[in-house]
């Protein structure tokens, strides 16, 4: 039986932290791509006309897209090392924090990531927006830890 007066609200998505091992990356304003998908293989079995049998296939992970205001060259330089032929893979995690920002309530770890795309800021002299960069990371796995 549930305890009276106690409730569990869903985690809020605005208080999060992204950590990339060996990289002082600062804070991010947006993180998307926490997604894993398994392909489905269909097998139309002969003589069975009521449905098609399905089986799990290969599992793939989406690219993590990280956006932040430009504060240093860390993400840019990591990407340009790839362009120059030096592949540096890094692991890290995406962490959702509680309302006070003190405790981890959810964590996904990614491993062996490298930047596949870097996007610079959109610039417009008639606006006072923050200059935002984005980097897309490909990785070899996403694991829910907490």
Q: How would you portray this structure in words?
A:
The protein has one helix at residues 74-83; strands spanning 16-20, 30-32, 36-43, 53-61, 64-69, 90-97, 104-119, 132-138, 142-144. With 146 residues, the chain is mostly beta strands. It has a single domain (16-38, 52-144), classed as Roll (Pnp Oxidase, Chain A), CATH 2.30.110.20. The radius of gyration is 20 Å and the shape is extended. The mean pLDDT is 91.
Please specify the SSE layout and strand pairing.
Layout: E1 16-20, E2 30-32, E3 36-43, E4 53-61, E5 64-69, H1 74-83, E6 90-97, E7 104-119, E8 132-138, E9 142-144
Antiparallel strand pairs: 1-6, 2-5, 3-4, 5-8, 6-7, 7-8, 7-9
Q: What string, H for helix and E for strand, traces the elements in order?
A: EEEEEHEEEE
Overall pLDDT:
91
CATH topology: Pnp Oxidase, Chain A
What is the assigned CATH homologous superfamily?
A: Hcp1-like
Instruction: Give the number of DSSP strands.
Output: 9
From the alpha-carbon coordinates, what is the Rg to the nearest angstrom?
20 Å
Q: Helix tally?
A: 1
CATH architectural group: Roll
What is the percent of helical residues? Answer: under 10%
* Percent in strands: 35-45%
**Unreliable parts:** none
Shape: extended
What profile does the largest beta sheet have?
A: 7 strands, antiparallel
Q: Span from first to last CA?
A: 25 Å
């Amino acid at each position: 039986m549930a305890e009276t007066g106690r409730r569990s609200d869903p985690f809020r998505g605005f208080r999060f932290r992204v950590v990339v091992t060996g990289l002082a990356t600062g804070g991010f304003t947006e993180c998307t791509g926490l997604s894993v998908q398994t392909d489905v293989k269909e097998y139309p079995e002969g003589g069975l006309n009521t449905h098609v049998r399905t089986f799990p296939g290969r599992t793939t992970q989406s690219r993590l897209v990280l956006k932040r205001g430009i504060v240093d060259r860390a993400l840019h330089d990591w990407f340009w090392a790839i362009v120059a032929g030096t592949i540096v893979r890094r692991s890290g995690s995406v962490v959702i924090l509680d309302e006070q920002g003190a405790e981890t309530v959810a964590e996904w770890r990614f491993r062996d990531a490298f930047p596949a795309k870097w996007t610079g800021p959109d610039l417009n002299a008639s606006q006072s927006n923050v200059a935002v960069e984005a980097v897309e990371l490909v990785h070899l796995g996403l694991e829910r830890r907490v």
